[in-house]
Each structure stands twice: as C-alpha cells, then as structure tokens.
UniProtKB/TrEMBL annotation:
Annotated Potassium channel domain residues: 251-308
InterPro entries tied to this protein: 5peptide_repeat (IPR001646), K_chnl_dom (IPR013099), Pentapeptide-BTB/POZ_domain (IPR051082)
Coiled-coil ranges per UniProt: none
Residues spanning the membrane: 214-237, 249-272, 284-304
Keywords: Membrane, Transmembrane, Transmembrane helix
Domain of life: Bacteria
Lipid metabolism as UniProt keyword: no
Native organism: Pseudomonas zhanjiangensis
Protein name: Ion channel
Pfam family, one: Ion_trans_2
Amino acid sequence: MAEAKFEESFWLDTTVDKREREGLGDALAQRARSGRPMVGFQLKNADLAGIDLVNHGEHAGYQLRDADLYRANLHGAHLFALDLRGSSLMKADLRQANLHCADLRGCNLLGIRLDGARLDNVIWDRQLLQERQGRQRLRSGDCTGATELFQEAEETYRNLRLHLEQAGLFEQAGRFFHREMVMRRLRMPRYSAQRLLSWLVDLFSGYGEKPLNVVLFSLGLIGFCGLLYFLVGVRLGEQTLGLALDRDLLVNLMDLLNCFYFSVVTFTTLGYGDISPHGLARPIAAFEAFVGSFTMALFVVVFVKKMTR
C-alpha cells in the first residue's frame, strides 16, 4: 500500500525534503481515508497536484490541520470541505483546485495562487492571520513589526479579493476590500489628516461596502438636529415651535415631532417653507442641508456600487 512506504515520523519531519517523493499524494490520500489524525504534517514544497482529499459520502471533510504547505503544489487538487485550520498555505499553488466548503480559518494565505480555484462557501476568518498578529504587535508597542504585518495583510486581502471577484463572489470580495482598506489606514501615520479622512470614510460608508452605515448616519443626524431645533426653536408662521416648560406634555411632544419633520425636509433639501429656522436654528439648518446633500449623494454611489456587481 502507498501509505505504508512512509512511517509516522516522516509526515512530521521538518528535515526531510518532500519535493521529489514519489507517490506522496497517493500516500497522503490513503492516510486521510484511514481516519487517523493528520495534524502538523510537514509538506513544504510537496508535489500534491490533483490529490483527492474529499471525504466522499460524508458531510464533514477530512482534517489536515496545522500543516506546513509552504509552496506546495496543489494544482487541481480536490479539497472539498477539507479542514485546513491553522495551516500555512503561503505561496502554495492552488490553481484550479476545488476549495468548496473548505475551512481556511487561521491559515497563512500570503502569496497563495488561486487562479481558477472554486472558492464558493469557503470558511474564512473575519481577520486574517497577519492582521491579528499585527494588532498584537501594536498592543505590545512594536509599531514597526505591526506595520510590516499590516502590509502583508493588505496584500493578502487584495489577492483574495481579486480572485473572489473573478469567481463572481462579490459579497465576500467586498468584505475583503473593506479589510484591505482598513489595513492601508493602519499603516498611515497615526495622527495624520489622511488617516482621519480614511477613518471617516470607513465610519460613514465602510469604504463603499456598507450602505447601511450611510442610512444609520443619516437617521442619527436627522434625530440630533431635530432635537437641537426643538431646544433652540423654529417658526411655523408666527408661532414658535420648541421646548416650553409652561406648556403641557402633549403640546411639547407635537412640537418635537414638527421639529423632526423640519429636520427631515432640511436634510433632504426639500425646503417646503412651512417651517423656517430663526436665530441659532439657522446655522444648524445650513449645516444639516450641506451634510444631507453630500450624504444622499454618497448613499447613491454606495448603493449603486453594491447593486451593479
């Protein structure tokens, strides 16, 4: 049997060059089918092209966890639902491979080659390995090391995003684009206008990937300005609408609703003219109208970007 040619220690030996080992792919596939654990396997530079590691007839795939697959040749490999958590796939060749439902959490994916790979339903990390390590370095005070890791994370996110876009998986590609831009921001000088602007774009729209952020910001600004109008007062004809402690609760509540209405028409720049600002309400209305026109344009751009993918 193919797997019998390789002792248990062979799979864990870091000193053995597995590049030219004949029958290695068949032996690994046989080992997987045996049901014995495959943890920490050292497969650096291994030629595993076309290997079949699919657990046929079962929902759960095989496990190949914490493996070193640096520069491994997995071209055209069948890896459906394979559990690769914690493995190093750095610069591995996974072109044309089937990674459908594979678990890649905790993997080092720097420089991975994924041209033509099947990537639907892959289980990804919310934060890639380099990002987590970079944040740990940042907390420990190692800014230089953190910046280098953030750069690697940005490159990895970009690489994954491009391949996901090619595969038509735009939702996941959008998430990786957002993380890519966050990594770029974290490499900027900490107290710089450029970094502040990048943070604001992220806050308001998630770098164009989160239209809900624009909606929530709009609702928040409308509500905040409505409360300010209620405190400083606006006019409905000759009548002043605003907080008046000498009036009963119902009247104040109706005035508050009218102030929210005025905030909506000001934010959207409709300007019906039935309610008008005066005094301190004027600069507030001018600010809200300016921000509102900008925010609505931003929402259209973000929404169209998401819907046209």
